[in-house]
DNA sequence: CCAAAAGTGTTCAGGCTACACCCATGG
DNA sequence: CCATGGGTGTAGCCTGAACACTTTTGG
């Protein structure tokens, strides 16, 4: 028996994470311009075109809707409940993306704030469709992944003080970390380069030394079967 | 700008894992009856119908094509390269499934062996479409998952001797395990019940005590934040 | 009695956790 | 000189890895 394929549309959606020292980890959302769920907040995304890959579709939609371009992009999960869109049967392949602090800041100038906006992950608004569900899954995934892959660095600038890295982990994991133990473990992985540079001092306190993630070294260690784990 | 959704079909595919004491871990494949890739081996699957969920589609296709029904089913990854099917644009949501030994045996009687057949994961044939890629991803996933979730039990009978569990891990991870350390760790998790029963002795050797997985207890421990890790 | 498979404890090393005081800077 | 944030070491505990002989059964 050969079956006919029914009419099902395919979209991609992207949960974009950003980090800023003062605000912790945030997610990029857009305000919908058209029904259904007009004027409600939603994860950016849209239909996949006939001759583009899923990843290309995500990158295109992010460019069109928010103006940002991401470097780290990973497939999250595919949502396909028959009633998840009131108009028609739509299956959504969800991704999560990480952007560096610098780009994160850039958005604030570039984009009309009423269309695309960052929300701290602890203060999320109501969301259209099943997007709340998608976002929860994305947060779960990034929390889990943070502990066995060095993805945190994708959210930081190239050079960062150690305290930034620590704050990022605290913000994402939602609990305190012992500074000494964290630094000891992180340095023992030998994937950080200590630079001869100090953070600019904005306000008070001793300026911290800058570090950078040594991706080459990480790839090398990975090949040798040595794992990142925190 | 509102975009029209292009014509893209959605299929589901399922990598079904089974385990038998004598043969180790195997995968269920079907021989294709129609072009493209006629007479080649493929992962079972097919088109998603308009009003069924993705999981329902997987279960239906497995029933239709192989006669088995699975209990454990988990989404693996969605494959959507524009050229992955020579006929038209098709996006496939891949799942992996685990079946208990008993059902695994049942198939051999039920099904025409030239249509559906088990293959040991170390002796796989060439596969249609990008199914080799899908299968590799599934094996990676189950190997990783085995170490932090008690999914191995889904492949065993309700009651099993400890040696079966050990053989399963050896077969899936592809390396030897120290029996004493493995048993110590497994028992320390307190998710196994030791029964007052012994394995039937087929051949030689001392009969082993039977155990069963205490799922309730596992769920309880999980709630308390205690993790399975092996 | 021989072959096959199951059962069982100890030791050592390395990693994880807990914990508190000093230092550099700006205001 | 005070407030703020960064930098640093040690000791106890626990977990994971290595390792070999005895017991039960069937043939």
From TrEMBL, chains A, B:
Keyword Hydrolase: yes
Keywords annotated in UniProt: Hydrolase
PROSITE patterns documented for this protein: NUDIX, NUDIX_BOX
Transmembrane segments: none
One Pfam family, short name: WHD_NrtR
GO molecular function: hydrolase activity
Limits of the Nudix hydrolase domain: 9-143
Domain of life per record: Bacteria
InterPro entries for this protein: Nudix_hydrolase, NUDIX_hydrolase-like_dom_sf, NUDIX_hydrolase_CS, NUDIX_hydrolase_dom, WH-like_DNA-bd_sf, WH_DNA-bd_sf, WHD_NrtR
Keyword Hydrolase among record annotations: yes
Entry coiled-coil feature ranges: none
Family: Belongs to the Nudix hydrolase family.
Name this protein carries in UniProt: 8-oxo-dGTP diphosphatase
Organism: Chitinophaga costaii
